[in-house]
Predict the structure.
Amino acid sequence: MSQIIQEIIQKQKIKEHILTEVIGHTLEITFNRPEFHNAFTVGMYVMFQEYVLQADKDPNIYLILVKSNGKSFSSGNDLRNFDAWPGLNDEDRKQASLGLTNMLRDFTSSFLNLTKPIIACCQGGVIGFIFPLLSLFDQVYVTEDAYFFAPMLLFGQGVEMFSSYTFPRLFGQGKTFSLLFRGQKLSAKEALHFGYAQEIFKTQDEMIKKARQICQQLEQQDQSAIIHGKKLIKRAIYDQLKTSNEQELLNLHRIWSGDKLVENVYNYMQRLKAKL
């Protein structure tokens, strides 16, 4: 990993940004940057991955429950992750892009290879990379006010987090184009309709209470049967997911290595301001 990315990670690995608690045999992971709508710093990517990997190896942890504090589940990437880019020369930018690509490869692999059930409780905005990432979760629960938005292509980024494979399977070709290329939002009811989400709730408290009950029920079942069952279900699509993710990462590396990244992000922000 490049020194530039390593320095950013060390600076941004702030423990308070992602909280963890073990309840019974379930690891609860809570995004805790509500003042920034739980936007992800580079350091948060690494911490999230580390907690997932630790839980998968821990024989006392059977499930992972992911939730967040605040009005939004997550607003995706903190665009300040790219603040260093304007000051980089061509060689440093290529090295930083390679480091970021390798970091994302490790991050996505931790979810692709996760053996234990993982559940998400989503309220408010589910924006950016987190929207397609949740398609790899075993259960997604949402509140009535939840909505899903993937603006990455709107500011010149690429498809990511397995969405080149999972979105057409979930939503069909036309809806996928609307979501990824036109920036159309997906409502909670639509998420339920397409099978992206499994249950919908009026309030966040009600949703988390029900999710914990489901975790308790799953904890009582034979864990070996659950792990092997999940592995068999995923086996049928594992190679396609891995290949799609690698192609997405190569495309992102190409974009980040180029000289249009900052300009594209700036133009997107200007378009947003013009709508306000």
Remarks:
- The two ends are 39 Å apart (CA to CA).
